[in-house]
Amino acid sequence: MTVRVLLADDQPLVRAGLRVLMADTPDLDVVGEAGTGAEAVRLVEDVHPDVVVMDIRMPGMDGIEATQLIAAGAGPTRVLVLTTFDDDDYVYASLRAGASGFLVKDMALEDILAGIRVVAAGDALIAPSVTRRLIEEFAARPEPAPPQRPVEGITEREREVLTLVGRGLSNSEIADRLCITVATAKAHVARLFTKLDARDRVHLVIIAYESGLVSANR
């Protein structure tokens, strides 16, 4: 199956590098390029990509607003943010806007391609270590925390699993922590997707943070 990719970045060299790399990758096909967020939103409606590789800082409509519009649309297109975490203050906002994950621009190009495949397959791309960095970075800010949202309709075990997902643990790590099988941990996560109407694992992390189950200190 070929993954249809839209590249949205205001730097032509970034788009060119990814396009050239994908030209030699039979399962990835660049179906469009955008230099602004507004152009990316328009192209999604025209070419219906599976994944948009989205920059954050672009002129006019930025990547966060574009991601929000794409995620709110009726189509199945998913957004993978490609940014520089150490310099970018908007990563958390992009995930809240509906991105399925993010990568940093100094990663190996092969890893970026692998990330596109992960997102296209319906999974979220956020490494446990990066998840913890996100939580610590944004929870420690002096600005008001996001509104607390109660988590209702889940069992106590599912609440434990949600907390561990929010802390960045993988299914195998959750299984070890709770003394259950990996299959059982995976089943709990799947039920959380349904009960909390979560798009993916990244969305579960956000819910855990906004509900107060996870913070920078616990």
UniProtKB/TrEMBL annotation:
InterPro entries: CheY-like_superfamily, NreC/VraR/RcsB-like_REC, Sig_transdc_resp-reg_C-effctor, Sig_transdc_resp-reg_receiver, Tscrpt_reg_LuxR_C, WalR-like. Residues 147-212 form the HTH luxR-type domain. Gene3D superfamilies: 3.40.50.2300. The keyword Metal-binding does not apply. The modification 4-aspartylphosphate is found at residue 55. Keywords: DNA-binding, Phosphoprotein, Transcription, Transcription regulation. It comes from the Bacteria. Residues 4-120 form the Response regulatory domain. This is Response regulator transcription factor.
